[in-house]
Amino acid sequence: MNESLHPLIEALRHELQQYGEMLALLEQQQDCVLHRRSDDLLQTVGAIQAQARNLQNAREQRESCRRRLARELGLPETAPFAEILPRVPADYRPLLEALVQENNDLLVRVQQRARQNHLLLHRAVELMQKLLAAFLPGSAPLTYSENGQVPTGGSWSPSTLFNAVG
User: Fold this and answer.
1) Span 56-73, pLDDT tens digits
2) Which domain of life is it from (predicted)?
3) What gap in Å lies between CA 133 and CA 128, rounded to an integer?
4) How far apart are CA 28 and CA 119, in angstroms?
5) Which of 108, 137, 110 is nearest to 26 (CA)?
6) Are residues 28 and 67 in the same domain?
7) I want to staple 65 with a disulfide (CB 3.0 to 4.6 A). Which of 11, 19, 140, 152 is the partner?
8) Which residues contact 122 (CB under 8 A, 6 or more apart)?
9) Range of the structural domain that residue 86 is part of
């Protein structure tokens, strides 16, 4: 069983590290939005996307280790940690429980921060649309509508802005 426990522990630790890095990037992104650092904001988007791939790989590795341990314990591969933990040696149980709990807690924090950032970015786009609409009356919105379509009907072009200013 130790052949399956140790890789699972390492996978849980690695996943925890990946969640921590994602949370740090999301906090950096939020800071960029709040302090209007648009160049840095664009860099955080790429870093967050790369970290999302790292996190997905860590989760897949952890799941593979969890399935292997479940099989070793005579449980179905789909057995959740709640069914696995009581069957592991008592010496390992507190560590595994703590790692699973920390991963779950950090996942919740990452989800909350991602939702906050989404709302902040959405609000920034809305404000920019209002600004453009003030300078370019009748122009089409630059983002998707509620039904997922790009609204049509605007006549904005760089020359229109030039003519309005000139």
Assistant:
1) 999 999 999 999 999 999
2) Bacteria
3) 8
4) 15
5) 110
6) yes
7) 11
8) none
9) 2-135
Give the contacts of 156 (CB within 8 A, at least 6 positions apart): 132, 136, 139, 140
Helices H / strands E in the chain, number of each: 5, 0
Q: Is the same domain home to 75 and 26?
A: yes
- Looking at the fold, whether 143 and 126 belong to one and the same domain comes out as no
121 and 150 share one domain? no
Global pTM value: 0.77
Residues 124-144: tens digit of each pLDDT: 788 778 877 788 876 655 566
Tokens describing residue 99: 């790692």
Question: Is there a contact between 117 and 30 (Cβ–Cβ < 8 Å)?
Answer: yes
Q: 93-122: string of b/e by CB count within 10 Å (b at 16+)? A: eeebeebbebbeebbeebeebbeebeeeee
Residue 8 in tokens: 């699972």
Token look-up 């399935």 returns 67
The label of the residue with tokens 């040696």 reads 89
Spatial distance between the Cα atoms of 32 and 120, rounded to a whole number of angstroms: 11
